[in-house]
Amino acid sequence: TFTPRVFSGIQPSGGLTLGNYLGAIKRFVTMQDEVAQSIYCMVDLHAITVWQDPKDLLHNTRELAAGFIASGISPEKSILINQSQVPEHAQLGWIFNCVARMGWMQRMTQFKDKAGKNAQNVSLGLFGYPALMAADILVYHATHVPVGEDQKQHLELTRDIAAKFNHDYGVDFFPMTEPVIEGAATRVMSLRDGCKKMSKSDPSDASRINMTDDADVISKKIRKAKTDPDGLPSDIDGLEGRPEARNLVNIFAALSERSVEDVLSEVGGQQFGTFKPLLADLAVAKLSPISGEMARLMDDPAEIDRILARGASQAREITAPILKKTYEIVGM
Ligand code: ADP
Ligand code: NA
């Protein structure tokens, strides 16, 4: 049996989006009080699977750490780290490259989406990404990983890798980690296309709400969000086949910590012209204190660096013994 331990990460590959916040960070904050140990990570090694300008990467890593802290992740309650500063992630990642099978990796839908028609010309790291992600989690023997819906398949792969390692070496060493995918907004969609995920890597800035957007920008993006000609229904069935409407209602529910049913019982019958300003006000009220605090923290990058350095040394107290034991099991 494994002690409950939470791990999750976000790529410093651009600014944080409302999708990251509702799908992941909000849950990181609550889980730090539910479980004795939680580790939250800026996964810079994952970010460089696609090109990152070195200056931007460093800035984005600090800004992401500021976003975590401003959202309520406490460096006193959780271990906050930058992945590259805890070398055991990459070291266990190599072992897992030798455990994972090519066929398993080829089935990963995120790789297929990101590589597109260009699969011969993307980095080897992009292909191997989920094996490193398994190492990020299992190098802590983490039992629970709060994530958005898009990470479900990678978490299944993490379990497959743990099971194959345990089986091949005849041990019960790595846990079967559980994904924690909960809430009204586990998959926030693009504001321009209800069939695409909201993402920091979408070339269209209008498709997403960035955590650093100011009140005017947030309001404008929501006002211009794609919708359909119908108004809001009073029950969930009325959102069937209407992904854009569904998305805005999900966002409203998640931001106000209410169920979708509850929200619809109040706003059902309204036109989007009435609902969108309500949603914009709510988003501004929830996000502007966070972006204000992020800006304040970013005035002192040295303090952020100190927090991450302290986190890395706390993390290594966990990861070094697990890596050492892994090497012993493998015969190293
Ligand atoms: P991005 O896709 O924005 O680059 P990451 O791949 O770094 O984000 O994902 C970080 C976390 O945020 C993961 O747990 C992921 O599932 C979650 N996440 C990302 N986008 C969304 C979204 N649109 N809706 C819900 N959760 C999301
Ligand atoms: Na993602």
TrEMBL record:
Main localisation: cytoplasm
Q: Which GO terms describe its molecular function?
A: ATP binding; tryptophan-tRNA ligase activity
Subcellular location field: Cytoplasm
Q: Where is this motif: 'KMSKS' region?
A: 197-201
Q: Which reaction does it catalyse?
A: tRNA(Trp) + L-tryptophan + ATP = L-tryptophyl-tRNA(Trp) + AMP + diphosphate + H(+)
Biological process (GO) annotations?
A: tryptophanyl-tRNA aminoacylation
The Gene Ontology CC terms held by the record are: cytosol
- Where L-tryptophan binds, per the record, is at 136
Q: Which Pfam families match?
A: tRNA-synt_1b
Which keywords does the record carry? Answer: Aminoacyl-tRNA synthetase, ATP-binding, Cytoplasm, Ligase, Nucleotide-binding, Protein biosynthesis
* UniProt-listed Gene3D superfamilies: HUPs, Tyrosyl-Transfer RNA Synthetase
Please state the Enzyme Commission number of this protein.
6.1.1.2
Primary enzyme class? ligase
Residues annotated to bind ATP = 11-13, 19-20, 148-150, 188, 197-201
- Short sequence motif named 'HIGH' region, residue ranges: 12-20
Subunit and partners? Homodimer.
Q: What does this protein do?
A: Catalyzes the attachment of tryptophan to tRNA(Trp).
User: Which family would the database say this protein is a member of?
Assistant: Belongs to the class-I aminoacyl-tRNA synthetase family.
* Name of the protein: Tryptophan--tRNA ligase
Organism listed in the record: Ascidiaceihabitans donghaensis
